[in-house]
Design a protein that fits this description.
Number of helices: 8
Shape: globular
Largest sheet: 9 strands, mixed
Number of strands: 13
CATH architecture: Alpha-Beta Complex
Number of domains: 1
CATH topology: Spore Coat Polysaccharide Biosynthesis Protein SpsA, Chain A
Order of helices and strands: EEEHEHEHHEEHEEEEHHEEH
CATH superfamily: Spore Coat Polysaccharide Biosynthesis Protein SpsA, Chain A
CATH class: Alpha Beta
Helix content: 10-25%
Strand content: 25-35%
Distance between the termini: 43 Å
Length: about 240
């Protein structure tokens, strides 16, 4: 199977950096350009052939579930699972295991905005074990530096490595494609120094174990809607 038709979206967090904006809404439901961030993600993936969605909910899950329902309003099928314990991005991926089964899937954080055509290379899943979207020349100190060889294969990933860590021009953009093999790596995760189970640790394990992970460089718009300043900038650009 080379074309991915299912996706897992991580939308359980409150987004404390959004301050009063998330008192009533989970961060993925904050409007950008007139629609919730999460709707941009669902419709963008649907435009690229993704028909089944699992949305991982938590804080104010009722808002997400009331808005999307069974997905029929958007021409897709939506299911939900609740993340009860906030113990990191690695463990939350495990919640998708029953939903995704043996088939590959797209995984996106619920606060990442890209143009719909950016999803095209991620749903094409021939000849790989995983894919990772990367953005060139972002500040890798805010996230992950992705190291890539001359053929576009990922050789390493360093998450928030600090000023003395090796660096790369490629930033982890927060959207992935995985085969079901990823669950073998998330299942054996150990707690990170931050006290969480980190998805990036599983990715590093996959790559260093010989897994074939291809980098997909995003050339269009990309935004991690991480704080009110980014949100204001996005909505301002839409109004201008």
């Amino acid at each position: 199977m080379s074309q991915i038709t299912q996706a897992v979206i991580l939308a359980a967090g409150r987004g404390t950096r959004m301050r009063e904006l998330t008192e009533e809404l989970p961060k993925p439901m904050i409007p950008v350009r007139g629609r919730p961030i999460l709707e941009h993600i669902v419709t963008g993936l649907a435009a690229n052939g993704v028909k089944r969605f699992l949305i991982v909910v938590g804080y104010r899950k009722d808002v997400v579930m009331d808005y999307f329902g069974d997905g029929s309003r958007f021409g897709v099928a939506v299911e939900y699972v609740e993340q009860v314990t906030q113990d990191g991005t690695g463990r939350v991926v495990e919640l998708g295991r029953d939903f995704t089964g043996a088939d590959p899937f797209v995984l996106s954080y619920g606060d990442i905005l890209v143009s719909p055509d950016s999803y095209g290379p991620l749903v094409d899943f021939a000849g790989v074990d995983a894919k990772i979207a990367v953005k060139r020349d972002e500040d890798v100190r805010k996230g992950g530096a992705v190291f890539i060889d001359g053929d576009g294969w990922v050789t390493d990933l360093i998450e928030k490595g600090g000023p003395d860590a090796p660096t790369s021009p490629y930033y982890n953009a927060g959207i992935y494609s995985f085969s079901s093999g990823i669950y073998g790596y998330t299942a054996r995760l150990q707690l990170s120094p931050r006290g969480e189970y980190e998805l990036t640790d599983a990715i590093v394990d996959l790559v260093r174990s010989g897994g074939r992970m291809k980098a997909v460089e995003l050339s269009g718009d990309w935004a991690d809607v991480r704080d009110p300043e980014v949100l204001a900038e996005l909505n301002q650009s839409a109004a201008s």
